[in-house]
Design a protein that fits this description.
two-stranded antiparallel ribbon, mainly alpha, single chain
Length: about 400
């Protein structure tokens, strides 16, 4: 049993890969908490709450990037609707956070301020049991997961793929954004949810709570990476890669590709929902702008910049693009969209395998953390060899 576990762990990453993961965990769970909580604010080594929130937010984005890489990098499904799943997870958990405000709002009524302003007397039906943490956690998984399952079932059964699938997912996201902008839906309209006070009884703005949320996000990010790596190195992962490279041949071998695509599509949506739930208490707001089609396109850019089909590259892309966005939107806000466009064009023309490919060429890859991307011919050939 121990030998099998060791073999499986070795198949995920090599020794240097595990060392790199351990170093990342040490930074997230030891270095950051010490420099934020133990080091005085006057010290040059102190990490401020701003950086804790910023890195925590980007780690949420990195989870979404992993989810996108699973469906696009490994399965060949380009989704422009992952921003919707991210926002749905955020709204599901945001309802719980709004209920935790209690009577501490502006109107001193045990209802969210926007409901009091709109003269609502009772909670809408979809707010049922939203004051319970376990119910909110369940909704975070079920709402994006069920939407992805139903949508994917009809789309994949209808053989919708390629640019047509991308356009439909973008249209779905845009329709949901327009719906959530309406005050009558009970989600706060264009203002969304904000002014959170507590989570599980703890004040949400205290340094200890913020660091706990940061650490939980880091743990989920590492867990999502290992889960995705486990999938792509398994037989399931080889089938997904073969679907990406030559789906008709996979169907000819007797596999029902609908089920495989539906599984990875739904799992990807659930990961996005969890990321959205972690994002909301750290950033302090969720509104319909998170469902903007531009946000979903930006998610695809993270993966393209980092490197499709690498997982670690997707994380790097999320950090690089989101970090650049934080800088430019503060220093040169009018130029950010131009920079983003140039970055995407430059990567497409000069770095087709993204930052991961560049690191590989420079010999900077750490062990098996950056496995070589399988070419279409190699992927289809390897699959046929294993299937025969």
């Amino acid at each position: 049993m121990m030998g099998a576990s060791s073999t499986r762990m070795a198949s995920l990453y090599g020794p240097r890969g595990w060392v790199a993961l351990g170093a990342a965990a040490a930074v997230l769970f030891v270095l950051f908490p010490l420099l934020n909580l133990a080091v005085p604010a006057q010290s040059a080594f102190h990490i401020s709450a701003y950086w804790v929130t910023l890195v925590g937010k980007i780690m949420c984005y990195a989870i979404v990037a992993i989810a996108m890489d699973l469906v696009w990098g490994y399965t060949g499904i380009l989704s422009l609707g992952h921003g919707l799943f991210f926002a749905l997870g955020g709204y599901a958990f945001g309802m719980y956070l709004m209920r935790q405000i209690g009577a501490d709002g502006q109107y001193r009524v045990n209802m969210p301020d926007f409901m009091v302003f709109l003269d609502w007397k009772t909670f809408p039906w979809h707010w049922w049991n939203s004051d319970q943490f376990w119910w909110a956690a369940l909704l975070v998984v079920l709402v994006p997961g069920m939407l992805a399952l139903v949508f994917g079932w009809f789309a994949f059964r209808s053989r919708i793929k390629g640019v047509y699938f991308s356009i439909i997912t973008q249209a779905l996201t845009f329709a949901a954004m327009l719906l959530f902008f309406r005050n009558a839906t009970g989600f706060g309209g264009n203002n969304g949810f904000t002014d959170f006070k507590r989570i599980l009884g703890f004040p949400i703005t205290t340094p200890g709570t913020r660091m706990a949320l940061f650490a939980i996000t880091g743990a989920v990010l590492i867990g999502a990476l290992l889960l995705a790596r486990f999938i792509v190195t398994s037989k399931l992962g080889r089938i997904l890669t073969a679907i990406r490279d030559a789906e008709p041949r996979v169907m000819f071998c007797g596999y029902d590709t609908v089920h495989y695509k539906l599984f990875v599509w739904t799992l990807s949506a659930v990961l996005c929902g969890i990321a959205g739930a972690l994002y909301v208490p750290q950033v302090g707001i969720i509104n319909p702008s998170e469902m903007s089609p531009a946000n979903s396109i930006e998610i695809a850019i993270w993966v393209a910049v980092g490197g499709r089909g690498t997982l670690v590259g997707a994380i790097a892309g999320a950090f690089v693009v989101s970090g650049a966005k934080s800088f430019f939107t503060q220093a040169f806000p009018e130029y950010w969209l131009y920079v983003l466009g140039l970055l995407f064009i430059g990567v497409t023309l000069f770095l087709p395998y993204g930052l991961a490919g560049l690191a590989r060429r420079w010999g900077a890859a750490a062990g098996r953390l950056l496995p070589p991307r399988v070419s279409p011919a190699e992927g289809a050939g390897a699959f046929r060899a294993r299937a025969s």
